[in-house]
Amino acid sequence: GNSVTQMEGPVTLSEEAFLTINCTYTATGYPSLFWYVQYPGEGLQLLLKATKADDKGSNKGFEATYRKETTSFHLEKGSVQVSDSAVYFCALNQAGTALIFGKGTTLSVSS
Amino acid sequence: EAEVAQSPRYKITEKSQAVAFWCDPISGHATLYWYRQILGQGPELLVQFQDESVVDDSQLPKDRFSAERLKGVDSTLKIQPAELGDSAMYLCASSFNSLQGFNTGELFFGEGSRLTVL
Predict the structure, then answer these.
(1) Taking CB atoms and an 8 Å limit, are A100 and B105 in contact across chains?
(2) Which of these, B65, B24, B97, B116, lies nearest to A93 by C-alpha position?
(3) Hey, are the CB atoms on A43 and B112 less than 8 Å from each other?
(4) What is the DSSP code (8-state) at residue B14?
(5) Could you give the strand order of the β-sheet that contains B65-68, starting from the edge strand earlier in sequence?
(6) Which of A2, A72, A78, B13 could form a disulfide with A27 if both were Cys (CB 3.0 to 4.6 A apart)?
(7) pLDDT tens digits, residue range A1-24?
(8) Residue from A99, A100, A101, A103 whose CB has the most chain B CBs within 10 Å, to mutate
(9) Do residues A84 and A35 make contact, with C-beta atoms less than 8 angstroms apart?
(10) No. of helices (H) and no. of strands (E), chain B
(11) B4, B42, B112 member nearest A101 (Cβ)
(12) How, if at all, do strands A105-110 and A11-14 pair?
């Protein structure tokens, strides 16, 4: 069945450091890929998405590129801020089905 | 800004008791989901509704869990009897469909209901 694997955390960075959170997936066909973020005390919210191979999703300085050849959708940000501290979830879906989430990666950014 | 409403935010109960969670999705969202998130894990789907119909409840422990969305708007998730292993965050989410009728994958989540079973 479909699944998502993301790097385990926690990831601890200093402000302005470069961030990469790895995500790989297993799916039949051509899923859509997503990154969701959960800030402390808040509900999950969509950060970015990509619906087909080679698409790049971007939002709030974060980027992720849909790589079909490596079945990956790694999240990157060039310069993290303290306010980026949160739990990040990689997810996929195919038309008509619910999202399947990875286990989440906790990011902690210190000033 | 429209939000998904959930209640209660926190619930503490003893094992073997009954608990119920309520969710009111964003107006106009035909698809409603209940997910369970155990601490340190990602959300796992319990049940998916399209309007008032169940689309997927394959992971719902039907011997103790039930869910309904009678009028295709708000929804209730019930657990009876609760067990220690049910302690988790119960998340409700809703989504609109594309013009082709597909789930776009853009889910709007409520803040969740945290259940502690003692």
Answers:
(1) no
(2) B97
(3) yes
(4) -
(5) B5-7, B19-24, B75-79, B65-68
(6) A2
(7) 899 999 888 999 999 999 999 999
(8) A99
(9) no
(10) 0, 11
(11) B42
(12) parallel
Phi, psi at A104, each rounded to 5°? 95, 145
Residue contact A96–B43, C-beta within 8 A:
no
Tell me which chain B residues have a C-beta less than 8 angstroms from the C-beta of A43. Answer: 4, 91, 109-112
Nearest to B21 by CA among B105, B118, B110, B97: B110
Higher pLDDT, B35 or B100: B35
Neighbours of B16 (CB within 10 A): 10
What pLDDT does B99 receive?
56
Burial A29-64 (b: 16+ CB within 10 A, else e): eebbbbbbbbeeeebbebbbbbeeeeeebeeeebbb
Could you tell me the CA-to-CA distances from A36 to A10, A32, A33, B6, B116 in Å, in that order?
A: 16, 13, 10, 19, 25
**Residues 17-76 (B) with a CB less than 8 A from some CB of A:** 33, 40-45, 48, 55-56
Identity of the amino acid at B47: V
Nearest to B26 by CA among B59, B62, B61, B1: B1
Render pLDDT for A60-93 as a digit per residue (tens, 0 to 9). 999 999 999 999 999 999 999 999 999 999 999 9
